[in-house]
Design a protein that fits this description.
Number of helices of chain A: 28
Number of domains of chain B: 1
Oligomer: heterodimer
Largest interface: A-B, 34 and 29 residues
Structural class of chain B: mainly alpha
Distance between the termini of chain B: 71 Å
Number of strands of chain A: 31
Shape of chain A: elongated
Strand order of the largest sheet of chain A: 19-31-30-29-20-27-28
Strand content of chain A: 15-25%
Largest sheet of chain B: none
Largest sheet of chain A: 7 strands, mixed
Shape of chain B: elongated
Chain lengths: ~800, ~70
């Protein structure tokens, strides 16, 4: 059958699986619903605006939207703007194209009572202002969900506001500095032309005054950050690069005013603006590439339930998580996340504990079992007694640890910063020495001052300031080409200094899903029935069997079964033509009285028809392609490579042997992973952690560099510093190689600027530097640094 | 050429450039460049209907602003 496009999400599927609706085709009822809703609302022009983009089909929503109307939710996220207006900040999930932004804004604006809905396309954050008397927040959320997106709130925190303000501030200062120095350039052309061909003092003064006008905002507005930096540096007793920039440019500025007013000699206004612009450019690049920690914490907020249902006598009421007392009875329903630790008192069902342990298998809980906060109920409806309050529960504990780790991330001091300190003090000392030397030699005061200033100007920190940002930007570009996303430029240098790589097993070294490696057929049976049986489950083992059957038995036609039941932690039982069929693990077979005699370190899946064992499948999580090669490369660099896993010893050892890792720790919980990394720090290692799951979060945040896999959980991607978009371990080694190379480039650049200074500073001290040469050399040293970085980019393709 | 011509031309061009700079700074300050991705795509959705919608939205806001100030 031909493949057709779904009319809503534009994904292509085989015609046979599509829902036909007249001329239209839909891949699922969700898409169909949205399509008709948009049509009814008069928003169908969305599809023309969307163009070639594709969407993700809508998924089932777990958290009911009524929660958004609860008082506790309001307390936490909603701010009251005025009597009639409330404001909330949301993160909207599922925005893929500009048309998505358009659609959301239009749909929200159509709701009566909505005053303002503004969505930021870059970070998917929305700010809504509405009238709560007319419109309920839950209806707003329902609308967003109805058109195929999802929204969750975040605290528009102070930190975010501050980061954005800082960015904007630099933007403004940069704009002024760029304007001033660019205009200065064409005035300087006239000046230098006049210097060689002769020009009247009158014209010279006019040009000087024009430059003065331009240099003033550049120095005092754009350069304000340097004055501030120099002041704070001095208060801490350090001579920083800011100090050098400030002294050099301020002295040059004052001297130039003196020249302009007395109408003799050459002014240095152009140098003032140039220095400020170049050094500010370096800072600006740094601020732009800084990771926004606030964004990360916002995403974490989504994982914390804001309230729980407690049983109060016979009634169930919702209370804030912080109001739950030890001993309260908490009700947890399907799909809800536990916020409080406790013990089950009635009911049963399975829980997803992968957040904490990394194990994908659901854990079955019944009366007397412990509920750990942070885990999610898959199918359980049960009552449990709170053993701790929220502040002492595992989830809150983990969130606190995570927040601490994010804010106290170890910072490896950057080479350029350390270097610039020595450099600045040396230059200032030399300049002062030069001035006194010339003054006592003896020369006139202004001759001595000019030579002294020329030392500072020629020792232009521009090249030094640009050395790191330009090199890291080249590194970022190299990474991006190989689908390696460095989230923060400063981390490249840290990565290059790494001495220890800690890798998670499931999903990082391995593919993260079991694959059938061996199948034994004991008796003949109908594969179609087996296929139908396993297809009914979403358990990873079942998916592995389905994949295997599709691959080996080309003409399997699934079907012919009825009444399938999934027995937690056992397997599947169904009926086919009146005969009982069962597929599952050893426990299921034992329960049914079927004799099995294998024990294996692999996961086993048995299939029995009418009490007779027909087939045994051995499943294994296999290492990713090239995993062992990548690990060998890392070891060849002399790095310590460690594997951590929440999985059991046997399978951990097997994978480790296969890929060639000697140091393995099995049965490790989320917290222990982080502790292990802390231990590495204490031993003096610079630790890189690679992982993909929620259970790796803490470790990712604690490590000097956290690396997430592109198909890992969204929160792991948020917390990490580097994302490997193609999930490959080879990219991991490439990320390391690129970092090393970039770090080498930084060193080269710093070397170039130092050598440059070593040549020109003695010349300046001897008084050979005229303004023209000073200006040319300044640009030349910066050009050398930028050119060297570009060269590296071309050579390393 | 008298030197006042140079002075005047310099002054005039710096003045004009200054106006452009101030306009740009105003743009940054009012958040028009905050959302780089959106800024680049906004032109696609810039027909008459959008303008009408924007005008309606403006009116709605005004009405509510007035409502707020009404003494109760």
């Amino acid at each position: 059958m031909p493949d057709v496009k779904c009319d809503h999400c534009h994904l292509v599927f085989s015609d046979s699986v599509m829902i036909h609706d007249g001329e239209l085709h839909f891949c699922c009822n969700g898409c169909k619903g949205i399509y008709h809703l948009l049509k009814d609302e008069g928003l169908e022009s969305f599809y023309t605006k969307m163009g070639e983009a594709t969407l993700v089909p809508p998924t089932r929503q777990l958290e009911p939207s009524e929660n958004f109307d609860s008082p506790s939710f309001y307390d936490r996220f909603v701010t009251v703007v005025s009597q009639d207006l409330a404001q909330v900040s949301l993160i909207i999930e599922g925005i893929h194209c500009a048309a998505c932004v358009w659609l959301n804004e239009k749909a929200l604006h159509k709701m009566p009572g909505m005053i303002e809905a503004h969505i930021n396309y870059t970070n998917n954050k929305a700010r809504l202002i509405w009238d709560p008397k007319v419109l309920k927040l839950s209806s707003i959320i329902d609308m967003i969900r109805a058109i195929g997106y999802n929204a969750y709130p975040y605290d528009a925190s102070m930190q975010e506001v501050r980061t954005n303000k800082e960015r904007k501030e630099y933007y403004l200062r940069m704009a002024v500095a760029a304007f001033a120095s660019m205009n200065m350039m064409w005035i300087a052309v006239a000046q230098y032309a006049g210097y060689f061909t002769g020009m009247t003092q009158e014209i010279k003064t006019i040009l000087n005054i024009a430059e003065w006008v331009l240099a003033t905002p550049a120095l005092f507005y754009s350069g304000w950050v340097f004055y501030r930096g120099a002041y704070y540096g001095l208060r801490n007793g350090a001579v920083t690069m800011d100090m050098l920039v400030v002294t050099g440019s301020t002295l040059a500025y004052c001297y130039s005013i003196y020249i302009t007013v007395l109408e003799k000699g050459e002014a240095y206004f152009d140098s003032v603006a140039m220095i400020i612009t170049f050094v500010l450019l370096g800072k600006f690049l740094e601020v732009l590439s800084r990771k926004n920690a606030a964004d990360t914490l916002d995403v974490i907020g989504k994982y914390i339930p804001s309230e729980v249902s407690i049983l109060d006598g016979d009634t169930i009421r919702s209370v804030r998580v912080s109001d739950v007392n030890v001993g309260d009875t908490i009700v947890i329903r399907t799909g809800e996340r536990a916020a409080i630790d406790g013990e089950v008192i009635s009911g049963e069902g399975s829980f997803d504990e992968s957040n904490l342990t990394g194990e994908a298998d659901p854990i079955f809980k019944r009366t007397g079992d412990m509920i750990i906060s942070g885990t999610t109920s898959i199918d359980a409806l049960l009552h449990y007694r709170a053993l701790k309050d929220y502040a002492h529960s595992t989830l809150s504990h983990l969130v606190n640890l995570l927040e601490n780790a994010m804010s106290q991330k170890p910072r490896i001091e950057q080479l350029a910063n350390r270097l610039s300190e020595y450099f600045s003090s040396t230059i200032l000392f030399l300049a002062i020495a030069t001035f006194w030397g010339w003054y006592f030699w003896p020369h006139s005061f202004d001759r001595a001052l000019m030579v002294g200033i020329s030392v500072i100007i020629i020792a232009c920190p521009c090249a030094l300031a640009l050395a790191t940002p330009v090199a890291t930007i080249v590194g970022l570009a190299l990474g991006a080409k190989r689908s390696i996303l460095f989230k923060s430029a400063a981390q490249i240098e840290t990565m290059a200094k790494a001495t220890m790589f800690v890798l998670d097993k499931t999903g990082t070294i391995t593919q993260g899903r079991p694959v059938v490696v061996y199948a034994t057929y004991h008796a003949s049976f109908d594969q179609g029935t087996l296929s139908a049986l396993v297809s009914s489950s979403k358990h990873p083992i079942s998916l592995g069997i389905v994949e295997y059957l599709e691959k080996t038995e080309s003409a399997v036609q699934a079907g012919g079964i009825s009444e399938v039941n999934e027995i937690p932690a056992r397997g599947l039982v169904g009926r086919s033509n009146g005969v009982m069929i069962a597929g599952g693990n050893g426990l299921l077979m034992q329960d049914m009285g079927i004799a099995i005699e294998t024990s294996s370190d692999k996961s086993l899946f048995y299939y029995a028809v009418d009490g007779v064992l027909c087939a045994t499948f051995e499943l294994q999580d296999l290492p990713k392609e090239n995993a062992s090669k990548a690990i060998k490369t890392l070891q060849a660099f002399g790095l310590r490579v460690v594997m951590l896993t929440g999985d059991h010893e046997a399978s951990a050892m097997r994978i480790a042997r296969e890929v060639g890792i000697d140091e393995v720790y099995a049965h490790v919980t989320a917290q222990e992973k982080a502790d292990f990394i802390e231990k590495g720090h204490n031993e003096g290692h610079v630790v890189v952690m690679a992982g993909d799951g929620v259970n790796d979060l803490l470790a990712l945040a604690c490590a000097d560099i956290g690396i997430a896999m592109g198909n890992g959980s969204d929160i792991a991607i948020e917390v990490s510093d580097i994302v490997l978009l193609n999930d490959s371990l080879v990219s991991l080694t490439e990320a390391y190689a690129i970092s090393r190379r970039t770090y080498g480039l930084i060193k080269q650049n710093l070397g170039i600027s130092l050598v440059y200074n070593a040549i020109t500073i003695p010349l300046a001290m001897m008084g050979y530097i005229i303004p023209l040469i000073a200006a040319i050399s300044m640009s030349l040293s910066s050009l050398l640094v930028v050119g060297n970085s570009m060269r590296s980019r071309w050579m390393y393709k | 050429m008298d030197s006042w011509v140079v002075a005047m031309m310099l002054g005039a061009s710096l003045f004009l450039g200054g106006i452009a700079l101030i306009a740009f700074l105003w743009g940054i300050k009012t958040g028009q460049f905050d959302d780089a991705k959106r800024m680049m795509n906004q032109v696609q959705f810039d027909d008459e209907k959008e303008l009408n919608d924007a005008a309606d939205q403006q009116k709605k806001k005004e009405v509510l602003r007035k409502k707020e100030y009404r003494p109760e």
